[in-house]
Amino acid sequence: MTSPTFMRLTPRLQRSLQSLLSQEPAAQLIRSTARQQWRLIVLNLGSSLVEAFTEGATLAVVFLAVQVLSAPAGTPFNWASNPILSRLPAAANWLNGLPATGVFASLLALAVLLQALQSLTRFLILVSVGCFAARCRALVTALIHSQVLSFSFPCASGYKVGDLTDYAGQGPEAIRLQIEMGSQLLVGVLLIATYLSVLVGISPWLLLAVLVMGGLITMLQKQLLPRIRAGSEAVSQAQVAISSRITEDFQGLRLLHSSGQLDGADQHLRSRMGELERQLRGQVRRLAVVGPFSSFLPILAIAVIAGLSLLLLGGRSTGVLPSLVTFVLALQRLNVRLSGVASNVNQLADNSGRLARLNQLLSPAGKQFRRQGGIPFRQLQLQIRFEGVGLRYAPELLPSLSDISFTMPKGQMLALVGPSGAGKSSIADLLTGLYAPTAGEIWIDDTPLEQLELSSWQQRLGVVSQDTFLFNATIAENIAFGTPGAKLAQIQAACQAAQAAGFIESLPQSYDTLVGERGYRLSGGQRQRLSLARAILRDPELLILDEATSALDSQSERLVQEAIERFEHNHTVLVIAHRLSTIVRADQILVLEAGRVVQRGSHSSLLAEGGLYQQLWQQQSQTTHQAHA
Q: Residue 317: its pLDDT value, please?
């Protein structure tokens, strides 16, 4: 019945409306888009109101049609006394001049016209809300992408790639559902108001009686259903206990035989089976009530409504039948709409989890964002300088770097060596702006790095690491990434310098070859040479080689190393080396251990000095000698 359903819906409906009016990012996006797309909103609201009006008008036509059909043949109508047409004297006068068949045909035509208009309004509702949802989905997808890209690297790297992909996929879907369910909710509420107006107009006392009866039926169901659930749970527990006991008895037959407990075990099981039988019989009685009770309720409801109709509507000039038919039809459609609204509210509740995740990502609370603004970087004039730089990736972790100081003059090559975890890559992370120092300062000429415009600095860097990332695009597009407007001739020259032109031109589609997801169609050495060609094409102020050849075979390493040596002239290069043979010509070598610089100098001076560098050199020399032997 209507009242219990409506009462259950009310708090959930309030929560749904509150979610649409909240200050969360998703709700703000919907409202701001609604202000921009106000024509769609007006169209949607107007169509919803027209649909509710046509539904009420259709019920009025039904009332009049049933009155025509139920009247005795040959009895003249005085439509001016009709409760509906008394407010429309022109229509009443027109109908008075028509025979009953003409009136009925006119009402049928009007009903068809009203339903056609209602179908048109439903089409407009669906189109307007669909267009609005499409706009919001496009905006939220772009917003998610912008939000993730605006995070600082430490913040963004705290998310799993799968989670971010799920945000990008589920966020727009959550917005679509929120808008479409909200629109359906609006239509449903308007139609419910229409049906309630019709029911109250026919007889508020009859509606009240129906609501009271619905409340009594619901109370009976509330009494019955918990007992059925409790009985089912008790039966299930008893069956599990019996099954477990039988299994244990069969597994413990040796113990039961040897201890003389066979009869005791049998009696124990029989007593449990008696308890189960008692519970099963009670459950059978409870379940047996449901079927007859459910089939009896509709008959009871019809009988009560019909009896009350005779009592409450019998004195009307229009007769009982038109009012009764219209009342039952409106009541039935009200129940359908209440079920629809309940479904919409449930879907909104189910969508609240996805919406909460979206709001969690879009909310700025607890997030770090990339540094914006600053002095635009043009060109490296003199040097890069570290002064007492320290780095701690998280407050609870030990420092990765402590008191790092060095100077890298323009046009020179600086190499970083040391065991794993010494802090070599951390220095590269600081130079590329992925992390900010937690102590000390990095100077680019006479300007602190933190005062430079971060994007302009990063655009003048070239980074080649052992983990090369390639897009699922052509070779030419991958090399030109980060160098907008690059011509094919420039790309080819960069590939020539990177020792990559040979293998590229041997491919059937040459520079138009698709490399596949993350470049899986290419070998590791080929990917490294493409990465180096990308860096060369940028003509960077600083080239960072982060163990760029450590995972390559000897042939690939030789080719990449030759390309690097060609490029080093007149460029500033930072090399993080695993194989010391690749940095013997470095202008300066820093030896790191446990986040500190323990040695510095040239290759020859460090060998003469002894210490950690000499140990690393000797270990690698022995390993190379054994491999060749």
A: 47
Q: What is the DSSP string of 110-154?
A: HHHHHHHHHHHHHHHHHHHHHHHHHHHHHHHHHHHHHHHHHB-HH
Can you give the residue range of the structural domain that contains 594? 371-460+543-548+574-629
Give the H/E segment covering residue 230. Answer: helix 204-251
Report the distance separating Cα 172 and Cα 178, nearest Å: 10
Per-residue tokens: 320: 């009982």
Q: pTM (2 decimals)?
A: 0.67
Residue that the structure tokens 């980060």 belong to:
482
* Domain co-membership, 180 together with 306: yes
pLDDT of residue 3: 45
Is residue 295 packed enough to be buried (19+ CB in 10 Å), middle (13-18) or exposed (0-12)? exposed
What are the distances in angstroms from CA 46 to CA 100, 118, 121?
A: 35, 12, 9
**Whole-angstrom distance, CA of residue 249 vs CA of residue 30:** 65
Is 415 inside any structural domain?
yes
Q: Which residues contact residue 60 at a Cβ distance below 8 angstroms, ignoring those fewer than 6 apart?
A: 84
Structure tokens at 80: 């001016």
**3-state SS class at 47:** helix
Greatest mean pLDDT range, 166-175, 230-239, 293-302, 371-380: 371-380
**Predicted confidence (pLDDT) at residue 98 exceeds the cutoff of 90:** no
Region 8-36: what's the mean pLDDT?
67
Give the Cα separation of 464 and 166 in Å (integer): 30
Q: Are residues 349 and 401 in the same domain?
A: no
Return d(Cα 135, Cα 141) in angstroms, integer: 10
Q: Is residue 22 part of a domain?
A: yes
Is the pLDDT assigned to residue 626 strictly greater than 60?
no
pLDDT number for residue 1: 46
Q: What per-residue confidence (pLDDT) applies to 120?
A: 92
Work out the pLDDT band at 72, boundaries 50, 70, 90.
Answer: low
d(CA 140, CA 434) in angstroms, rounded, equals 26
Residues 138, 168: Cα–Cα separation, whole Å: 11
The amino acid at residue 372 is Q
Tokens describing residue 348: 């909104």
State which H helix or E strand residue 227 sits in.
helix 204-251
